[in-house]
Amino acid sequence: MFRNIPIVTKNLLIINVVAYLASLFIQIGGESLVDWGALHFFMASDFHLYQFITYQFLHGGFTHLFFNMFALWMFGCVIENVWGPKKFIFYYIFCGIGAGICQELVQYVQFAADGLTSMNATDMLNVNGTHLMTVDQVMNLSSTIGASGAVYAILLAFGMTFPNERIFIFPLPVPIKAKWFVVIYAGIEMFSAMASAGDGIAHMAHLGGMLFGFLLIMYWRKHGSRFDLNRSRQFFDRWSKTGASKYSGNSSYAGNTTFSGNAGNTSYSRPETDMEYNARKKALQDEIDAILDKIRKSGYDSLTKAEKQRLFEASHAK
Q1: If pLDDT is split at 50, 70 and 90, which confidence band does 22 have?
Q2: Helices in the chain by DSSP H: which ranges?
Q3: Burial zone of 133 (CB within 10 Å; 0-12 exposed, 13-18 middle, 19+ buried)
Q4: pLDDT tens, position by position, 222-234
Q5: Contacting residues for 144 by C-beta, under 8 A, at least 6 apart
Q6: Could you tell me the pTM of the whole model?
Q7: Nearest CA to 276 among 236, 301, 244, 309?
Q8: Which among 76, 87, 86, 100 is positioned nearest to 217, based on CA atoms?
Q9: CA–CA separation, 38 vs 50, rounded Å?
Q10: Counting beta carbons within 10 angstroms of the beta carbon of residue 250, is it exposed (0 to 12), middle (13 to 18) or buried (19 or more)?
Q11: Does an H or E element contain 143, and which?
């Protein structure tokens, strides 16, 4: 089963698991791997730009890791197969960074409301009435880890790509459409962000990942992307090779492709001309491009059974 997971999703799963195991033992500069790679508040001394990437691969416990990786495996495999690896990894990292930016903005509002952003880093604060800490030390206490922002963006991508696909969600007894699944999850996170402040969960990072994912998908739908063009070309190249193999003969002309027919009891075959080959190649490419464009505009569920079969054959052609 693990061999059938697409390459980017597989590597993301491996990296996250390895990073979690490494965090149990490895220290960098006297700090734990989690403290070093977690996303700190941008005004704190422990903040570094690379943390917008590293925080996405660190987790606070096995349960945190398991549920993120389970969702990544369940929905990431589907989205990567439809989008292709380059578009998928760009979307994943982009949304993870976006989730971190949103979390930083929320922290800034919180610290500003407490008056900390207008104080000097060395000013002393009485924390909980028990001990003194500098403003910088207090700011360094706030950090974010986890792939949740990027994973929530993957959930959104699934809901927008397959809006009418029905999925089972525990504990609901009946399947619901993917678009309503995304709306429900976003609503829960919004409510939790307002009602469960201080619960240690970066709800706004989850919503931030979905927000950046939504904006990016809408941009792609309106303007297209080079990833879509590359993906359609990959579909076509593999499909055309499969088609050629079905009609190949002994001739080495025009990619070994021949046409055969019957005239009475006489059979004949002739090599495909350059003009015929190019026309067939263009027609196949136009068909795949049209299917991909239909998915971008209306979702996978809008395809006919024949179109789904065409896309399946093209994506699995060797």
Answers
A1: very high
A2: 7-23, 33-37, 51-54, 62-83, 85-113, 135-140, 148-161, 178-195, 203-223, 226-246, 274-298, 305-316
A3: middle
A4: 887 767 655 555 5
A5: 38, 39, 55, 100, 103, 202, 205
A6: 0.70
A7: 244
A8: 87
A9: 10
A10: exposed
A11: strand 143-144
